[in-house]
Records
---
Amino acid sequence: MTSQVTPAFSLEFFPPRDAAAQQRLVDGAKQMLVIEPHYVSVTFGAGGSTRDGTLDTVRTMRGLGCDAAPHLSCIGSSRDDLKALLQRYRDEGVRRIVALRGDMPSGMGASAAGALHHASDLVEFIRQETGDWFHIEVAAYPEMHPQASGPEKDLAHFVHKVRAGANSAITQYFFNADAYFDFVDRVQAKGVNIPIVPGIMPITNYTQLMRFSEMCGAEVPRWIRLRLAEMGDDKESIRAFGADVVTSLCETLLDNGVPGLHFYTLNNAEATLSIWRGLGR
Ligand code: FAD
């Protein structure tokens, strides 16, 4: 897989919970402008818990001069809710959206799942309601979505989601480049050629990384786990080792012609910037 296309970099943020976190987010985002992000995206809480937070953060990012894409998950929402939100984003001039199923908050029964059950239903709905207004990004899982019954089924669902009207995809994070290239090959073998941009997770905290990875089905290779575990509470060593590992993954991906990199910044500018500096761009 090699291409001549200049890679496009994007950054993901989550809505801050209070005024102090908001200020840190703005300061960090300003520092990260050096990356010249093609766009930034803003996450959306399951069940709509941060609906206003997502819109506020989209506005903040647009105020910094970034093209900002809200994430929108369909689980737990009615068609009317989704339609109203899409209209709000249109009114704001937003042209890009990350369309997801989302996850049910724990403790909520299946009856609260909402009108649309898969991200493909949401993509179809967005196209029905808004035509080609939005550039639609969807999620991809090189190491398989944790609830899928098998890699082939998951691939078929991904292809269906793209054919429902997605323009490009962002992957779940991974640390094994082969998993990504194998996934892209299998997608292309099905005749689907949209850009599939690797999602990049900086490593700064062992416990948090293991917890996230357990939930989302991303594999942390044994050698990385062992090295991090041995570092215990030595945050500096974890950060330095994490930056080396992830920078080297990014180099491999870029050398092999990926269409871009999407950084899961976790609102932590330094973690992403240390990788960026390592890439020497
Ligand atoms: P889908 O594409 O619907 O897939 C979910 C599962 O359903 C898969 O196992 C798939 O194989 C299966 N499936 C799909 N279609 C069918 C079908 N027709 N029949 C049977 N099974 C089917 N979560 C949030 O809450 N907020 C966010 O902001 C957020 N941002 C994310 C950004 C990225 C880039 C990624 C990779 C994930 C993000 N997530 C977010 C997590 C995401 O919501 C979860 O991974 C969720 O479990 C699946 O969402 P999806 O859009 O991939 O779902």
---
Amino acid sequence: MIEATKIKELKGIGEKTEKLFQKIGVDTVGDLIRYYPRGYDVYEEAAPISDIEEGRIMTVTGAIYGKVQVSGTPRLQITTLHVKDLTGTLKVIWFRMPFLRNTLAGGGVITLRGRIASRKGGIVMEHPEIFYPSVKYEGKLNTLQPIYARTTGLTNNAVIKAVKQALDNLDLSAEMLPSELRLKYGLAEYNFALRGIHFPEDKEVFYHARNRLVFEEFLEFILAIRKLKDGSDRLRNEYMMEVHPEVKEFIEKLPFTLTGAQQKVWREIARDMSSDTVMSRLVQGDVGSGKTIVAVLALMNAALNGFQAAMMAPTEVLARQHYESITKYFEDYGIPVKTVLLTGSMTTKEKRRAYDRIECGLAKVIIGTHALIQNAVNYDNLALVITDEQHRFGVRQRETFAEKGGAPHVLVMSATPIPRTLAIILYGDLDISVIDELPADRLPIKNCVVDTGYRKTAYHFMKKQIAEGRQCYVICPMVEESESLEAENVTDYATALKEELGEGIVVDHLHGKMKQKEKDAIMDRFSQKESHVLVSTTVIEVGIDVPNATVMLIENSERFGLAQLHQLRGRVGRGKHQSYCIFMSGSKAKETKERLDILNKTNDGFKIASEDLRLRGPGDLFGIRQSGLMNFKIADVYQDAKILKMANEAADWLLKTNHEWLKKLPKYEEPSSVII
Ligand code: ADP
Ligand code: MG
């Protein structure tokens, strides 16, 4: 068996299962072994019953106490048991497993592992895994069981079995890294790393395996970037332009004064565009720092100088929002520049019309999604390309975009702040500008971390804000297993909320499964203030700007990464009104509260992400979506900053010594980007 072997050659994988695997992007055995778990179940030491915490998966060991009982309806039989240890008694229930009454009739000591939930009758452990007699748990203790991202119909066990077979039958002895590097950085061998990432015996093995894979991924990425840089050593500026007088006038007439930071960055951009070499610049600025207006100035300036300028956004909702606000700016201020929108969901006819306007040069400012870099688009004289929320795109997409013109100026914007040292490695070929100041009229957002008991109060508060003319967002948690469940979740929530808030309050909802036209209509209603509450999945996370919205309520916030919560929070506090962010947590666990409290203490995106990592263990390492910064398969820029620096040093060495190994380097393949 070799890596290119199709997975249907594996035992137990028929046509149907093969299709399911293909759905998650696994076609060959090689794909399969690189389909890393997204989390692990850690079989921890049993906890005393007095220490159990709602919302957590825990293990307890105790004596079976009293009789095992079966109640409920014939369709949903509930088996109840009590276990007792020195510190207390715990009620345990199972659904649809009446036979347990016989299995457990013998009494004695049992170990149970399951989620602790709060039910009408009090705290219970629900549907736990059973280790009976208790000694059976010893074999599992401290092991990590992989959890894979799945698709409907494909069980975790099926993935485990397939991966095991693949690992057993493949020859993994070939080492990809030069041994000098492996020794210098103490990296695990390829063989060990692959087994260790899928089936780690313990946390130590897991970390050792993971570090190696992260290193390799970073190294390949850095080498790919260096190659790009080689070819594009600052080209001559073919699109020389001074700042047009109308741009200066526009800045004067804006309803707000640009912050010092915005002015500084705009000067840097203007200087680049009139210099001898072409611009290649990254603008970093935290959420709400006002990056868009700086981009608008650059677009406008290119257009007024007679060139075309294009801006690409990662989602259709955001692209359209940019298109509308920019078009409105131009209309309101009498700027004679034609704009056009181009997105994937437009009809063929609409697209054709956009292509024509772009090709003949009528449209000077072009805004859209990935559709902007498709083959069908031919620009007339593209002099500037801007990518908004760059961290959602891959480097290759940025390159393709730049290749669309002759050698246009390139500006990329990102809301994910990273320290300069890391930015230089990741964006090696770009100059860096930072908008490190928020507009002066902003009031700091008021935050609170609460449990679900506070929900009614939160709704009441939202009603009051709505009565004052404001609007609210509610974020429902993502459902990892399936997009349709997630959609259902949002829809149900919105219906219940409508009921709760009563007459006169318009509640809309938004999720990834909706048609683009529907999403657009709903975003429109919200920004036109025709709806008061928007219940949504994280689709609204990126870039959306509705300054009148003042409340952000995030359900199950314990399931999100802090960096992501910070982005979500950034959707409010964008105008002059006091804004509020309510982090609702379904878990009463102390660590959860401690983690969420970080958001109370700081507004610094990088600090937030670093603290987040410090507080979490490998059990939930992948369980929560991390920074979403660039599209790495296993590496995370925040978490693995140290390894990133090592890989950078290694890349220097390989290039300097012109190492043999560079010739063997496989073509770097960027994971496909996250598109919502
Ligand atoms: P982000 O940096 O997150 O992309 P935006 O560019 O969307 O932020 O700006 C957030 C909001 O702040 C917008 O409504 C914008 O009009 C407003 N804004 C931008 N610059 C200023 C400023 N200097 N003073 C006041 N408001 C501003
Ligand atoms: Mg933005």
---
Amino acid sequence: MSGMPVEQQVVARARKAFLTGRSKALSYRLSQLKGLRRLITEKQRDIADALRKDLHKSENATQLYEMIGLEGEIDLAVSHLSEWAAPRPVEQSLLTVADEVYIQPEPLGVVLIIGAWNYPWAVTVQPLIGAIAAGNAAVIKPSEVSSHTSKVMEELLPLYLDKELFPVVTGGVVQTQELLKQRFDHIFYTGNSTVGKVVMEAAARHLTPVTLELGGKSPCYIDKDCDLSVACRRITWGKYVNCGQTCIAPDYILCEPSIQDKVVKEIRKCIKEFYTDDPKTCPDYSRIVSLRHFRRIVALMEGSSVAIGGETDEAQCYIAPTVLTEVTSESKVMQEEIFGPLLPIIPISGTDEAIEFINKREKPLALYVFSSSDKMIKRMIADTSSGALLANDCLVHYTLSDLPFGGVGSSGMGHYHGRYTFDQLSHLRSCLIKKLRMERVNQVRYPPHTAQKLRWARLFLLKRVDVGQWRRAAQAVALVTLAAYVVQRFLQKS
Ligand code: NAD
């Protein structure tokens, strides 16, 4: 392999390891998942230190926003693995009633996981959990932007996982592009949509399927008919956590002018409560990840009025929690995903205009609606589209493993979390095992194609049968018969 670029060598080794078949054994998958779980528990301090250096995250915030979720996902995969990986029976037609028909999930092969920097453990290791559970090999490429975390991952993962099956490749765009030249069986990318297109183009060369976890502008509509103090508290949390660098952070608020002042007042109160009078010295308030992003976000304030915050410090990449008013669709801050602690408020005349405003734009990753009217919430669900809709809160849908997480349209394709990650990184193989008996039944499909055969074929093909239910019923009958027999024998003897 000498002479090959390092990235090519790594992928070749991962493929060779996959072809040994060891990643397929359920016991091996479980041992790797448990290794990952141990890493998270035993190396908490190293993980937290790196995130503090990268994003000024406190240790408790790291636990709350990244590690607890990963622990839950690993535990779920460990406890459900045998069920997820088992053959899945399906309904059959009368034509196949005597046969074995099921879906067998099987590993795809070698998966490339490209992570982003904002929650670097969550977005990189969460797909890895599914890749391991599904029996794949995975090449892990953490983001170079969160460089301390990337280094820690490179050091720690090989201590707890099979390093041939799950190698870590660090580096920047050059290394990622070298990786993208290789053939993978799936690419799981988290990041911005511009690079998402680069990834998809590279994947197309090998016809490799992709999952793209992208971002965009997630709107937050506040209906005037709702408890504004609770709504603003939840919005303040969802917006300013991780300094606004959250893919599902509410990007902007839509509300009627009559409640705007109250919204600003409530958010100001919550900022003070969460981050004190001086967020810059508050350990729970993060920093912008890089100077490039700092300057980009500061420039977005241009042309809008600062109602709260607005203070910046380039030396620390600090931007205060900020609310912007006098914002229109044409304002700079409305031209791209903010991904920082600026919260513009856009006045609209009511629900109709909010729906129109949302539908005129790209489909968002998350849509937030605050209202005490169920009817209004259901209308929002019916009349808009987004990766997810969350009513009367922010972000927390991410924590539910049973809800598929992902975008739609320009906010992404594919979804994951819990069993969805397992399925996303598996091939759902259709298996039909016929017997060589009962050839008479097949006469209906062999020429000559008579009208009578067609009538039978219609019955055989269109009648759907839940064979599993039949089997369960037959087992129940057998059990009852056996019990009756035992009782009868017992009564005869006594
Ligand atoms: P980033 O800059 O770290 O890029 C992501 C990955 O792409 C990195 O690993 C990087 O090496 C690679 N990359 C960057 N430029 C490349 C290029 N030209 N060619 C090949 N690879 C390249 O992260 P980012 O894009 O700044 O992340 C922020 C974006 O990610 C936001 O849009 C956010 O909404 C989105 N995001 C989405 C989710 C989600 O789950 N949907 C989660 C987190 C972040």
